[in-house]
Amino acid sequence: MTEHTDIARNQYIEIVVEAIIAVAPETEDEVRSIDRTADVFEVLALDSMDHLGVMTEIASRTKIEIPEREYGQLRSIVSLAERIAG
Q: The domain spanning residue 81 has which CATH number?
């Protein structure tokens, strides 16, 4: 990966992290330190409504609408960041 690609990837990761914090502010410390490939919703004990809230928040921040049928596959910070990166 090039430095530019790394910067862009980190920006997408930060968008996802900030979206999770917006929906579940009590997770801020933990979400910043968890394994980026782990199931973030399971690790943080977030339910389906939180998942929906995170997806809505990501759409609001990026103007990228993710179809609901994809939600089950997008459960880690990395998978969410890669999805919005295109």
A: 1.10.1200.10
